[in-house]
Amino acid sequence: MEKKSIGKFISALRKANGMTQRELGEKLFVSDKTVSRWECDECTPELSLIPSIAEIFGITTDELLRGERNNPDREAVSEDVASKQKAKSDKQFKLMLHSREKKFTNLSFISIGLIIVGLIAAMICNLGFSRGLLGFCLASVFFVAATICQICFTVSFRLLIDEEDEEHAEKIKLANTDMVLNSVKAFFGVLLAFAFCLPIAVIPYNSYYGLAFDSWLMFGALFAAVTFLFAFCIYKIFVFKMLIDKELIWLDEQTLENVNKDTKLLKKLCIGFAITLALLLLITYILTSFVSESTFIKRERFDDPDEFIEYMQSGYDAWYEEGYGDVPQNQLPIYEPNKKWAEIDGKEYYYNPILYESINILQHENGEWEIVVTTDEADQNGQVMYSILNAGLLSLHVINLAIFVIWYFVKTKKRKHK
Model's pTM, two decimal places? Predict the structure, then answer.
């Protein structure tokens, strides 16, 4: 073998054994920078370390100091041993990587557990003791704890990359990427749980008393859905790119290209959604400005007291007959229920007050009458129609959002299948 310096010889032996500078340094209780300086011939190992280095690589101290093997036969045997050691090193690396990933996954369940405990605390305080605000505050403490724990786990189990160890570098990058992406899922879980609990603190007139379960479920699901969509857009457009730039996430060229295309598509869809949302809000504002609940209420108007009297008394008679239509006339009760007498223009009339929402009687100075009657049935029908209008406007916003969401996922799914 051509004679080499001690540093070059150590570098060759290290790579043949599938070791990184950090791993060799740990065995010799020195830093990886010290090993790097040896291999660059900036300095040589201390004499006390020579026997340890020779033992690690299975050579003699003489061979190490000379920077070459003593004979070809020994070199051939050593290369065979080095090959076996490299295979063993690869296996140990895989086991180490699998062990760290498993520990990270197991510890991540602590964060998930804290999220669940936070939701249970909010539920007990809100539903059990009617203390919505207290429940939200307690839940927030657990959510913050879950976030801090997940950050600590990610930092602790993230592997450092030795750029000279090209064989293991890619696997380490992939492992780090998986850990970061799993942590992002945990952070989304915290965010959604926080949004789900938020209504018990902000929706009630008095947040101290919280919300009923059905109201909490409805508003919580709505808050969580809106929060998820907003956070997803922020994450995909800004945060994900930042993680890639900081080399916290590693992607191959093809995947990175697809991600960039998805980000551009999402930006366009967000702009389109913002425009359509503004238009729908403008339409909603215009409609609610000119249309109210009273618009759909049909009112009876009279300018003749006699017609009004006939209308009111016929209304009572119809109600009375419908209420007792299955009872023979000779068995009808002596008293007439809900019958009330009133007077207009010196004439008495009877009517049933429960049939009417309002009765407005006005006589002008010139003697003309203006009588407006709103039945209870007409008032309820007006409320139903107004509710339908509001539901229709809300449906337009939901449909608008659904169109853009479906469009995004269909486009991205097609790209993945190409």
Answer: 0.66
